[in-house]
């Protein structure tokens, strides 16, 4: 999910506390239930590969599912909301900081420009470990194209994920029928097109699977 698009001075106080995992959208997004309230969480201080950055996007989602499986009780540590209403937070399961562990496993990058509020040393140390061991996104020398660069049209982006001009809506709104692929729908969801997630389970356009 693009924190560069989401995190800004528009942040407003959110909440923190225990929650139950309802679904995992991708490598850095999940939906939880806290005291009966359904909330989408964007993991703070990390950026996971986009769904279309195969195979890494799928691997990152699977990693988050293993660390915070559906039904698990987690602790949400975050006091900010992004401009789209998502809670930007760290997720703890027991004593494990899920955000840091994703980085340590090579399933996400540290999002350096958005490290405010997180333990910078813990995140950077975890990333150094992953790079040294060539885990996940570091399995190629120097690491794969960073998600934030990929979203801007980096070298690993497939042209098939770019919508043709005829499919783009002048209003900036899309229909699932126009998006073309499930992976692209997840990108749009992360960019703030929340109306594509009609049942608010953290996954857009399930019909495209």
Describe the protein in words.
- The chain is built from seven helices and eight strands.
- It is globular.
- The protein is 26% helix and 22% strand.
- The protein has helices at 3-6, 56-67, 98-104, 120-133, 147-150, 176-179, 182-190; strands spanning 17-26, 29-34, 37-43, 46-47, 73-81, 87-93, 96-97, 109-110.
- The chain has two domains: 3-148, Beta Barrel (OB fold (Dihydrolipoamide Acetyltransferase, E2P)), CATH 2.40.50.90; 157-204, no CATH class.
| Widest beta sheet: strand line-up | 1-2-3-6-5
- Element pattern in H and E: HEEEEHEEEHEHHHH
Identify the CATH class of the largest domain: Mainly Beta
| Integer count of domains | 2
Shape designation: globular
The helix content, as a percent range, equals 25-40%
Number of helices: 7
Q: Kindly report the oligomeric state of this protein.
A: single chain
Strand fraction: 15-25%
List keywords for this structure.
209 residues; alpha+beta; OB fold (Dihydrolipoamide Acetyltransferase, E2P); 2 domains; five-stranded mixed β-barrel; two-stranded antiparallel ribbon; 8 strands; globular
Layout of helices and strands, plus pairs?
Layout: H1 3-6, E1 17-26, E2 29-34, E3 37-43, E4 46-47, H2 56-67, E5 73-81, E6 87-93, E7 96-97, H3 98-104, E8 109-110, H4 120-133, H5 147-150, H6 176-179, H7 182-190
Parallel strand pairs: 3-6
Antiparallel strand pairs: 1-2, 1-5, 2-3, 4-8, 5-6, 6-7
Helix pairs in contact: 3-4
